[in-house]
Amino acid sequence: MTTAFISHQDCALHNMGPEHPESPIRLAAIRKVLDRTGLLQELDCQASVAATPEQIQLAHARLYQQRLERLQPSEGVVYTDEDTALCPDSLHAASLAAGSTILATNRVLTGVNDNAFCAVRPPGHHAEHDLPMGFCFFNNVAIGALHALQQNGISRVAIVDFDVHHCNGTVDIFKDRPEVLVCSTFQHPYYPERYHDIRRDHIVNCPLPAFSEAALFRNALEQRWLPALEAHKPDIIFISAGFDAHAEDPMADLQLSEEDYRWATQLLTDVARRHCAGRIVSVLEGGYNPVALAFSVQAHVEVLAGY
Ligand SMILES: [Zn+2]
User: Fold this and answer.
1) How many domains does the chain have?
2) CA of 123 to the centre of ligand 1 (A)
3) How far does the centroid of ligand 1 lie from the alpha carbon of residue 34, in Å?
4) Domain holding 100: CATH number?
5) What is the pLDDT of residues 204-258, one digit of tens each?
6) DSSP per-residue letters across 57-108
């Protein structure tokens, strides 16, 4: 098996200030652990290529993209909401993050790689069609999924999201696209409080109360995600891989461990093998304790790589 590891040093240039939890340290911690364990050397490491404006507009309004460009400062930071800020390099980093999912999709669909993990930032799953939110500007996984749907032989896509926050942006973009199944587990009630109660057959929202143990998370995947995935029969699976439901994460109150991420990834790789020749594109979302994040990514990528 070959697993692509797609990243770019310029993803570190997006910097919302020294106190901000969505910091460049996150990617450095991941790389350090994967390098030290020898896993990185087993992966097919590729540099992200920036998404074009047309590719970003697969998921976002042109006027939204132009508005972000006008807002981006030439120095300092400009806040787009109370916790999301643009610095001079933010949209360059965001374009690389979005482009990584397109590169990953192309490599997986042409069989160059069996699957791919995109270690990129800023994250994407809160970004709606025309609204930046929750540290996100461009919805990376949505852009990859919409690109995949333009390719020959791809008519059904699944996006699964185990970040501790609900993927309001992804649901916003796909709420009227039943060819895209969206499955999400998330702490509730909690940020962002949008679209978590939407009723659609292709949107599988699984709220989990604060301080839920791993058993509830695993139960949601087995009882809710698995039947939906089996019925949908996706041609490719995208993972919004946020690791902030980890017990050591400072952002929220779920109680997962590295072993739960390993288990979830195994469940998803089994589904992918049954339905779509193992094709998975996984994209980093949250995870704000750098150590817990890095070891969780290690467990996730080990399963993708067949360990
Ligand atoms: Zn999150």
Assistant:
1) 1
2) 9
3) 22
4) 3.40.800.20
5) 999 999 999 999 999 999 999 999 999 999 999 999 999 999 999 999 999 999 9
6) TTTS-HHHHHHHHHH--SSS-EEEETTEEE-TTHHHHHHHHHHHHHHHHHHH
